[in-house]
Design goal:
The chain is α/β, with parallel strands linked by helices and 442 residues long. It folds into two domains: 251 residues, 3-Layer(aba) Sandwich (Rossmann fold), CATH 3.40.50.300; 68 residues, Arc Repressor Mutant, subunit A (Orthogonal Bundle), CATH 1.10.10. 28% of the residues lie in helices and 18% in strands. It has 13 helices and 16 strands. Strand 9 and strand 10 form a beta hairpin. Helix 12 packs across helix 13. The N and C termini lie far apart (92 Å). 31% of the residues are buried.
Length: 442
């Protein structure tokens, strides 16, 4: 119990002057930070922001968006769908690349991803062929029949083993055939090398324009990170304002900082953004790296919404110059209904810096593809079986054969490229007791 002395020394509180406690009201900056952490932003454009801790009064709450309309009026019956006039999407290159597609190109480092990624938009922009891929369709004409149908025509003297093509540079189209505007966002390569390759491909005659990470940094405009909602919106605004029809993202690792490739939920905001671009008829091509297992690196969830996936397999010999690789559709294009043949590409540059592209049909048996996967660093029979869509028994028999032929080294549990001493291959030890794979071959 308090004594009279304690009561006399206790501080006196002026109850009349007590101010009511002010509740915490988040500022626009607080809300923006919260929404950015969630992966997207709901603040309206132009909303003023205030620095945290300044004591500035919070801005007036933004007017909430109107409720979304009910879905019932938009439901189609099968009969209504049957009689709808749906315009055919124009083909941008051959039959496999159409307007509004989302596709991926991946390969290990140094194989030639950027060569392919830079030559594709030039062919798309000018509606010209690229290698053995036919030119895209003119909006006023029927679409191209494409590579496979042109090879199957009767009376053709060319064969699958000898058909070749070299890049033919034409003047820019005009009038109704004007260039298709393409935006190429480069997030990794040096600007000097980008300029060299662009000049070699004579991109100045195309409708391709660049948004380069080094140029952005030097001009003080910061870099681009599609992992942030603000930058995704900046790119969308640029596309809509400038009228681009094709977007090239080179490459995913350098342009999506802070996104865990192995977590599907981390990539989901980017996936929704890419779907939004697709709904706007914007074609998006994403360049990415291969993982250690030879497949496209990261979570497979990103592959669900794409129209096609192209893998580039290194085919260059030690004494060859330039980039040489085989293009293979690991996910066949939804536009063709059937897989397109593998093509062998060889990019070289002459003394003047001009780029020459040679393309021919790649003739590789399944067994040779198995050898190539091992050469590319895929060590597990299980991983190769998944990549090639073969059962493990078939892969096991190829592994035993390749080990006996000294085409590869290691053992059945870990496949390795061949070891050499001088020019002699060293045969690896094969122990049948180690082979615990399935024996059921195709």
């Amino acid at each position: 119990m308090k004594t009279n002395e304690d009561q006399e020394t206790a501080p006196q509180i002026d109850i009349e002057n007590i101010q009511a406690a002010r509740p915490f009201t988040p500022t626009a900056a607080d809300l923006a930070l919260y929404e950015r952490m969630r992966g997207y932003s709901t603040l309206p454009a132009g909303t003023a922001t205030h620095t945290l801790g300044t004591g500035s009064p919070a801005p007036a709450a933004a007017t909430p968006p109107p409720p979304r309309p009910p879905l019932a009026p938009y439901v189609l019956t099968a009969l209504q769908l049957k009689h709808m006039k749906i315009p055919k999407r124009p083909a941008l290159l051959d039959r496999w690349l159409c307007e509004g597609d989302l596709g991926y190109i991946f390969a290990p480092r140094g194989v030639g991803k950027t060569w392919m990624a830079m030559s594709l938009p030039r062919a798309i922009s000018q509606r010209t062929p690229l290698g053995l891929w036919a030119a895209g369709s003119n909006p006023s004409s029927s679409s191209s029949e494409g590579l496979r149908s042109s090879q199957s025509e009767g009376g053709s003297e060319s064969t699958a083993d000898t058909t070749t093509s070299t890049l033919d540079l034409d003047p820019p189209p005009s009038g109704a055939d004007a260039c298709v505007p393409v935006l190429y966002i480069d997030g990794e390569m040096s600007m000097e090398l980008t300029q060299y390759r662009s000049n070699g491909l004579q991109m100045e005659y195309s409708g391709v324009q660049y948004l380069h990470h080094e140029h952005l940094f030097e001009k003080g405009a910061s870099t681009v990170n599609i992992g942030e909602a603000e930058d995704r919106q900046r790119i969308t605004n640029l596309i809509l304002e400038s009228g681009y029809r094709v977007l090239i993202l080179d490459n995913l690792s350098s342009l999506a900082s802070g996104v865990d490739e192995n977590k599907g939920m981390d990539y989901e905001p980017i996936s929704h953004w890419l779907l939004d671009l697709r709904r706007r008829k914007i074609t998006v091509i994403v360049v990415h790296h291969a993982g250690r297992n030879g497949a496209m690196r990261g979570h497979s969830k990103r592959e669900d919404a794409c129209a096609w996936i192209i893998e580039l397999r290194d085919a260059r010999q030690d004494d060859e110059k330039g980039a040489k690789f085989v293009s293979h559709f690991t996910k066949p294009s939804r536009n063709t209904g059937d897989p397109l043949p593998d093509l062998l590409w060889h990019y070289t540059s002459d003394e003047q810096g001009n780029t020459h592209i040679k393309c021919e049909l790649a003739v590789n048996s399944d067994y040779e593809q198995f050898i190539q996967h091992v050469m590319d660093g895929v060590t597990s029979q299980k991983d190769i079986a998944e990549l090639m869509d073969k059962n493990k028994g078939t892969i096991s028999k190829w592994a035993r054969r390749a080990l006996d032929e000294r085409r590869i080294s290691g053992g059945v549990h870990k496949l390795l490229p061949p070891k050499t001493v001088g020019n002699m291959s060293v045969k690896s030890h094969y122990d049948p007791d180690e082979d615990d794979s399935d024996e059921d071959a195709e």
